[in-house]
Amino acid sequence: RLGASLHEALRKLFKAAVVDEAVVKELIRDVQRALLQADVNVQLVLDISKRIEERALKEKVPPGISRREHVIKVVYEELTRFLGEKPVPLKVEPGKRKVLMLVGIQGSGKTTAAAKLARYFQKRGLKPALICADTYRPGAFDQLQQLASRINVPVYGDPKGKDPVKIALEGLRLFNDKDIVIVDTAGRHKEEQALIKEMKMLEEKIKPDEVMLVIDGTIGQQALVQAKAFNEATSIGSILLTKLDGSARGGGALSAVVATGAPIKFISTGEKIEDIEPFVPSRFVGRLLG
Amino acid sequence: TELKAENLRPILSEFKLTLIENDVAVPVAERICEEMEKRLNGLQIKRIEDKRKIVEQNLREVLLEIMTTNERIDFLKTVEEKRKKNEPFVALFVGINGTGKTTTIAKVAHLLNKKGCTVVLACSDTYRAGSIEQLETHAKRLGIKMIKHKYGADPAAVAYDAICHAKAHGIHAVLIDTAGRMQTNKNLMNELAKIKRVVNPDLTVLTVDALTGNDAVVQAEEFHKNVGIDATILTKVDADVKGGAALSVTYVTRKPIIFVGTGQSYDALEEFKPEKFVEMIIR
Ligand SMILES: Nc1nc2c(ncn2[C@@H]2O[C@H](COP(=O)(O)OP(=O)(O)OP(=O)(O)O)[C@@H](O)[C@H]2O)c(=O)[nH]1
Ligand SMILES: Nc1nc2c(ncn2[C@@H]2O[C@H](COP(=O)(O)OP(=O)(O)OP(=O)(O)O)[C@@H](O)[C@H]2O)c(=O)[nH]1
Ligand SMILES: [Mg+2]
Ligand SMILES: [Mg+2]
């Protein structure tokens, strides 16, 4: 649906006899609407479109390309500026144990992502392990354990435990020979001060190599302020974007990148353990714009 | 003086952006501003300086009209009426993954218990890892019976089983938990429509995460079209949301929001107050 609107905008650009200021301004309005409907933060959309307008109208068109092509190139460049040109992989090397801690808002897909990441690295010949440090959600340990048993990955947790730090430290002690240990934590949002404090303490005590923020692909304008809060509590090293198999465009991820300065490393595209792939910026910009 | 479209548009543009910043879906914000322009065009006002206040007041009225839907549902009254007929009240909970269906069912069960109604839960999420253990933990904590089958069982069969149990034991309400599913997945939407046909619930409730952006419109439309929704519960309202999702969902379904979820404890379920949401959405 959204793709149709931007596709239509670009078609108008291509059909225009002369790419003058009016045509460019109309394209920018269409790009703005597409980005807003893709859930990109309003302020970000206004900033991006202001830059696009300035460059499209004032920049000298490089030799060999048309004004029209230049405008399209500017739109594309301004969007990838935030996301990065190339995919940034999650580096895991055999024998150098990496501890990855997953954090995020309730229901964003952390527990499922933990298992998916374990499977992803297992397929690449690495030894993963999982720790359930969620002491709040009923059935959290059962959920992770059932996922782990499907892929034959060891999991540690204490369903009756109340101290996530104690559980995580014990799990890390047991899994000292693994290549990657993924720590699943309880969902939380920025208003739950006690939970944010707990997350901060968990990070300080287990000292993960990377804290990955799991962002729901359906999230709206609140993505920026929520991601900022997470980053202030536990410096975010990477982002995993979920539920992209739905109709949401995932614009909230752009806000999260801007708020944390962290790259998106993976996207989740379904409920099955196999439904995970490394993030490719160019493909995502295509999705944002349709 | 008379309000004209040209001097209304800049003010309405500003309000439109505010609505979008507060999570009202773009097409809903656009349509509301178009309706506002028609409504205000030609209106006589005393002073031109008042025009912003007039627009804001009218916007408040329009939003309140939308969110105070014509079909009001008094949930407890609806349950009571079935109780008087000696029939179990059956509610089916649906929505996309992770929106809070299972937790909301526990909260609703707790509310019904407090009002003296007995409840049985149906674990019709036979798919997701840990779904049975999650609902079972809630059932045990609340002292409520839960009907479950194995993982992989037919969700409709579990629901049917729970309704039979309720009838046999004179239990007042049956709350059915279903697996989360994307509205874009045809097979899963068909499965849900089938569960509804078999169960014939008194109320089909859509749970929507209050943090959802433009997808709220698509979720509401598709679930309403393919399954049929009677009411919505907006969850995670405690996450400092601006509330626009409430407007998006009621605009496209015309069905009432019966509760809002305000946290993770059993008491974190409150009545939806349209006036409160209107104030949040227009700031
Ligand atoms: N369709 C789809 N569903 C997903 C995806 N990722 C996760 N899910 C589903 O989303 C729901 C929530 O996932 P969880 O892994 O339980 O989320 P969580 O962040 O651990 O939740 P909390 O621990 O309660 O904060 C489950 O039904 C998952 O199967 C995805 O990429 N696509
Ligand atoms: N803060 C807050 N968290 C909530 C609220 N409602 C649900 N949650 C949390 O959201 C997460 C997901 O809730 P579930 O009840 O598992 O959601 P679900 O829709 O049943 O998920 P699936 O069955 O996987 O589709 C859990 O961590 C809940 O505690 C709420 O109103 N406020
Ligand atoms: Mg979890
Ligand atoms: Mg559930």
Beta-strand share of residues of chain A: 5-15%
Helix fraction of chain B by DSSP (H/I, runs of at least 4): 40-55%
- The beta-strand count of chain B equals 8
Q: Tell me the greatest interface.
A: A-B, 44 and 47 residues
Based on CA atoms alone, the radius of gyration of chain A comes out at 21 Å
The pLDDT mean of chain B sits at 95
Largest sheet properties of chain A:
8 strands, mixed
Distance between the termini of chain B: 27 Å
Uncertain segments of chain A are: none
Helix content of chain A: 40-55%
Task: List its salient traits.
heterodimer; A: alpha/beta; 11 helices; B: 283 residues; alpha/beta; eight-stranded mixed β-sheet; 14% strand
Overview of the molecule:
The complex is a heterodimer of chains A (290) and B (283). Helix content of chain A is 50%, strand content 14%. Chain A is built from 11 helices and 8 strands. Chain A has helices spanning 2-15, 21-37, 42-58, 67-83, 110-123, 140-150, 164-174, 193-206, 223-233, 252-260, 281-289; strands at residues 98-104, 128-133, 155-156, 180-185, 210-216, 238-242, 264-268, 276-278. In chain A, α1 runs antiparallel to α2, α2 packs antiparallel against α3 and α7 (164-174) packs parallel to α8. Chain A starts with a helix and ends with a helix. Chain B is α/β, with parallel strands linked by helices. Chain B has 11 helices and 8 strands. In chain B, α1 crosses α3 and α7 packs parallel to α8 (186-199). Chain B is elongated and about 70 Å long. At the A-B interface, α2 and α6 of A face α1, α6 and α9 of B. The complex binds guanosine-5'-triphosphate (GTP) (2 copies) and magnesium ion (2 copies). One guanosine-5'-triphosphate sits between chains B (95, 97-103, 125, 128, 131, 179-180, 235-236, 238, 261-264, 268) and A (106-107, 137, 187, 189).
